[in-house]
Amino acid sequence: MADIFDAYALADAWDEMFERPGVVRTAYEPLLAALQPMDAAELRFRADQMARSFTDRGVTYAFAGEERPWPLDLVPRILDALEWDLIQRGVAQRVRALEAYLADAYGQARAFEDGVVPWRLLLNSPHFHRAAQGIEPPNGVRVHVGGIDLVRDEEGEFRVLEDNVRVPSGVSYVIENRRAMTRMFPSLFAEQPVRPVDAYGQRLLAALRAAAPAGVTDPQVVVLTPGPSNAAYFEHALLARLMGVQLVEGHDLVCSGNRVWMRTTRGEMPVHVVYRRLDDDFLDPLHFRPDSVIGCPGILSAAQAGNVTLANAVGNGIADDKLLYTYVPDLIRYYLSEEPILPNVESYRPDEPGQLEAVLDQLDKLVVKPVDGAGGQGIVIGPHADRPTLDRLRKEVAADPRGWIAQRPVALSTSPTLATGGVSPRHIDLRPFAVNDGNDVWVLPGGLTRVALQEGNLIVNSSQGGGSKDTWVLAQAPEITDPEPSAATYESGTPEVAPRQLGPSGHRAALNGEQEGQQQ
Amino acid sequence: MNDIILSRIAEALTWTGRYVERADATARILDAYLHRLLEDPWRDEDAACRSLYAILGLNAPGDQHCDMQQVLDSLAFDARSTGSIEGALGAARLNARSAREAVSSEMWECLNSTWHALGEQRTAARRTGPYAYLALVRRRAALFFGLTDSTMSRDDSWRFVVLGRSLERVDMTVRLLSVRVLDAAHAPDWPTLLSASGADEAFARVYGGFGDTSRVAEFLLLDRDFPRSALHALTTAEECLAALGNPRHDAARQPIGRMRTRLEYLESGTLEEALPRLLGDLQKACMASAEAVAERFFPYQGAIEWAQEGA
């Protein structure tokens, strides 16, 4: 039988769905069975419907100055229970280690004294803020939300590509992707138990409330957004809505007496926890960039005084610096006395003696990244780069070795993706989201799978024309818990049927025939 | 002139309001249930479908396994039953047509075009799932009530439409909660109940998130500001009846007014205990009121049969 997977040719990478041509991995069997009867036109029809629904709901992103519907591919990415267990433990471990590092770096600096991490890494970091030194987070949490980017290498092993502990974004797309898939493609969910993602808002709110300054019994949480023109504004609004809290802009807040207030029609109301979705640099013009008009003057002093909690904390950038990334496995051993569950991608540190030369020698075989880049900007993939690019890169790296890291190019795993003319392999990554409430690091089942929509492309960022996939974590065994019988439960298992009032259905049968006959 | 309405018209207007609200609420409930079912890996399809039947007042098919397709066929697509979306919208359309000069043309066109659009959406729903169908129903119901709001004078005709809608609202909210209270084992979780009432965001705003779930019942019954709460709908119904009828000894207003005061002064601490009885009483009050409205404003005469003298 001809189907959309017939022409599927595996790329030179780990394929998520097929073991080898024609042989599907176990977790994907029901999915394949559901998709096989459909032709490309049918899939295209659903994809168009999906795009329209995203546009209507305002789930869009800015690409080249245009509002485009969020690109969601119809073929989900599936993680079985075992794979997820590994990822979940690995991500939580990583977040715990980074928390410990942040507490140390802004505290006793043991890791530097003990020689685990060189001092210069901290002191040279543009994100090391003296202002953060005096802020002791009430429940010890600085990474309230973390996003750890993972890739799967040629052997099928998950590796960490980078850590995001400042303002990781994308979780709204996880929630919207699931919503769209269950509505546009309900038949796919029929055969497999997929773990839900809708608990995120509740978890986040609980973590933010737990981070409130000591002594506040009913903390007022707000989400601080740069405003509607920000690319992630949709996400900020969604999170505020899911948590039922105010979405504020900088000028909605006012600081006085080292406290933060929001301006309301009922006067100024106290604010205790600010889930801020803007960078440190823009947060407070009194401490950081004085030209920031989206921040709130004085908010940092309020945080230093312990009257407001900023989530994530100020100064977290020292922990997701890409050069620090190369030390995270050591940090896990040092702080947690554990072996890393998820390995890094093999990396070079050009700022160490001897390594700069090694990097420069094989620039055309490595991936070189600025330590401070976001959204895939500034990354040069050696094997794909042309000569002028490499020459320019060579000069830049030699001039500022601290500003770059180099990595072995990983052939990111591929997943079948709807492209023009059928389904083709495209490279994907995974960003799981972790929420730390101080007692426990909870990882949202799944995360955001991003997909590079151009053939062979390895950069999956949506700002670089990437798409996404709904990410399914299969539930292990059905955990059917017997609900406790409450006093009100009826003896019989079947619910009572409440009677229904009926009205006239509009036509009076007796009259109808006669009414019809009265026109001449 | 505007003060006088034919009894027949009043009845048609009341039921137009009721049926549109019923279609709207049914669409919301089905949407919340079906998608919750898809998103929950530990689902029990049969139990969930049976609880849907119970909420919507239909008998579940005997011993055989219930699935979503069956539910949609009988609760959404069945044009012969006014307990289903299609039947309710069809009946609303016919009622509006029989009161054609009392409803505005825009309202009538809204119902008529909706009715004609359903067939196509039904076919599409069988192919790609019910989401678009249910979304259409919700949008058109909102359009209809928006037009009621903006094209009808605030006269008695308008009051009958709003009265019908309010009574149906109370009824639907009570039905949702009843299943949860009387048969927790098969009932949906609290967040599903909230989204089935379109109340999830309003709830999150009032209670600052989710957490304490017994508050959902409190919200859906007692919230003063949320239009689908039982208290709010009762208050609206009572206002309509007060304007329509005799201020004293009003048999239609009395059961509703009593329930409203009972809800208003209920201590929320005792709610959980009182809930099963309260829900039963609410349902009875709505029925009694609807019957009294019918008796007073549109008593059913029955077709008069004439007999030949001396035959």
Q: Beta fraction of the residues of chain B?
A: under 5%
> What shape does the CA trace of chain B take?
globular
Percentage of β-strand residues of chain A: 15-25%
Structural domains of chain B: how many: 2
Distance between the termini of chain B: 43 Å
- Profile the largest sheet of chain B: none
How would you sum up this structure, described in words?
- The complex is a heterodimer of chains A (520) and B (311).
- By secondary structure, chain A is α+β, with helices and mostly antiparallel strands.
- Chain A has one domain.
- In chain A, 28% of the residues lie in helices and 21% in strands.
- Chain A has helices spanning 29-35, 40-57, 81-105, 110-113, 119-123, 171-184, 200-210, 233-243, 280-283, 299-304, 322-325, 328-336, 355-361, 387-399, 509-516; strands at residues 18-20, 23-24, 60-63, 66-69, 72-79, 145-152, 158-164, 221-225, 246-249, 253-256, 259-264, 267-271, 273-276, 309-311, 347-348, 367-370, 380-381, 404-407, 414-419, 422-427, 433-436, 441-443, 449-452, 466-473.
- In chain A, the strands form 8 sheets. Chain A has a 4-stranded antiparallel β-sheet with strand order 7-6-21-22. A 4-stranded parallel β-sheet of chain A has the order 9-8-13-14.
- In chain A, a hairpin with a 2-residue loop joins strand 10 (253-256) and strand 11.
- In chain A, helix 3 (81-105) packs across helix 12.
- The longest helix of chain A is centred in the first third of the chain and has 25 residues, at 81-105.
- Chain B is mainly alpha-helical and 311 residues long.
- Chain B folds into 2 domains: 9-152, no CATH class; 153-299, no CATH class.
- In chain B, 69% of the residues lie in helices and 0% in strands.
- Chain B is built from 13 helices and no strands.
- In chain B, helix 1 runs antiparallel to helix 4, helix 1 (7-39) runs antiparallel to helix 8 and helix 8 (190-196) packs parallel to helix 10.
- The radius of gyration of chain B is 20 Å and the shape is globular.
- The mean pLDDT of chain B is 87.
- Chains A and B meet through helix 2, helix 6, helix 7 and helix 8 of A and helix 1, helix 2, helix 4, helix 7 and helix 9 of B.
